Amino acid sequence: MAAFRPLLLTIVALCILSGDAWADDINYASGYKNKLEPFLEKNCFRCHGEKVQKAKMRLDTPRFKPTDPDSFDFWQNVLDRISSGEMPPPEKTRSGKTVVAKPNLELTADAKKISEWLSEALEQASAQASKAIRAKGKGTLRRLSRSQYANTVHQLLGSKASKLLINTFPEEFLDEGFDNIGSSQVMSDFLISHMIKTAEDAVEYTDFDRKTATREELKEFATLAFRRPVTDAQIAPYVRLAEKATATRAYAAILCSPRFLYFYEDPGKLDSYAIASRLSYYLWNSMPDKTLFKLAAEDKLTDEEVIAEQVERMLKDKKAELFINNFLRQWLHLENITLLPPDEKKFKTFYDDALEDAFTTESFMVFKYMVDENRPVTEFLSANYTFINNDLAKHYGLDKVDKYDFKKVTLKDPSRGGLLTQGAVLTSTSNGIETSPVLRGIWVLQNILGLKKPDPPPNVPALAVDTRGTRTLRQQLSAHTKSSRCATCHRHIDPLGFALENFNAIGAWREKYENNARVDTSGKLPTGQRYRNIGEFKKALLSRKDSFTQGLVSKFLTYGTGRKMHGTDRSEIKKIASKLKRSGYGLRDLIHHTTASKIFLNR
What we know:
6 strands; globular
């Protein structure tokens, strides 16, 4: 929701019409009563008050106590909605049967003031709350994800075990697209029994003799598996198991131990061993190597310069490709291509030309190039280049490349370039048969503007009105949003998807729909910036590059720490984004800034 900050700040500013002097020190109670409440009463309570609670939001009862995490998140959401231009809606006057939205310029000026005050109040509350939160720790206990488990066992035991694991481990629940969020991970009896059997099979498949094992051998293995030194008391149960049963059972038990499955991180500043694990699972999606273990043993990973050196070393290692593949797959929601594959009859070329592999390869190579060359993250929106092979060139309507392999090409057409026009994104945000402005709009809302998808009202079907006589999806959705229950959300979501309607369900260019109706890609951002085509749409998004950058920082930190970002993380995220701006927005710099942040180095 970082992209909504200006609007939320604006809404807060709208709460105050007067030119009163603003106190330097925030008094939350008096500030609410004298500044925020009058604005909310004038502009918000009629839709979010005692009688009506649109979008399930009520603003006349919550306490303004932003030092409390729940209260902070609530009011941060309010600020985001205001600063994005989403709320309050324009005033409406009725002329005959037509409802006309009229902007209120005076209200906009008020919004700027209230935005400044609310932003300052939340920033101060974040600083006050962060000390207490840091003392008791942030985030829940998290375990290795499916891919992390498989990669770690592969590193411990070998490739045969890895191949066995990756195909049999249960799929993970995705939260905000990521599979490693501790608060959303599930541990069940079924999963535990599956892990025991999988661990035993993995040990059996190794090339080592597991009939016998000494205390030191088990201790050495456990130290690697637990990712920190093991005491004699901790290894004793496994030694007894090896003596009473078999070494295979003892090694398998180590791979089922909570010390292996979970990340053990004490509240507050992380120690060197915990930092070694955070770095390795962030940038390699697997356990630390010998170098990280050695630095952890010497307690050097609390040094900022040492961390920076290790990040550079790790990004240059081929194992960094595991990070790129895993992060991209989850960030871009590429699993949707498999879950909702394109119709085989309608999109035969998708299968004949192996476009799914080509799409993911293109996204991977663009991302890797941007990391290797430290290209600005704004090129996710505006890049005038991509990587293609001949099949992808034909699909995109571009000149053939010199050979079958992928090659970097310069794009002359502004309709191509950046994430939004990549086949992987366009296909994963379709339903396999046709395009969906709603799905694509939500993707842009969450991944580009950094906003949360609003919850739909209860008991609302996909299209709840008669759409007969409509020729395009835009007309259908326009009929759909005549319902006041739908319009609140869809007037901000749908235009973001309309901008991508020149691309069909597998990302090929089109000027008309199958019924010969012309495609209309015009629309406007929640902040009111208008666009007529994909080129103007990308420029409009670029005008909000600071908000995009904050959202991107949040995504990287969510993935790197295994927890969702909270409202009280906003201040640190803004600092990282500001540093990134000063250094030229480089993607490699972003990774360095996140690993040096308080969020990454603390629990």
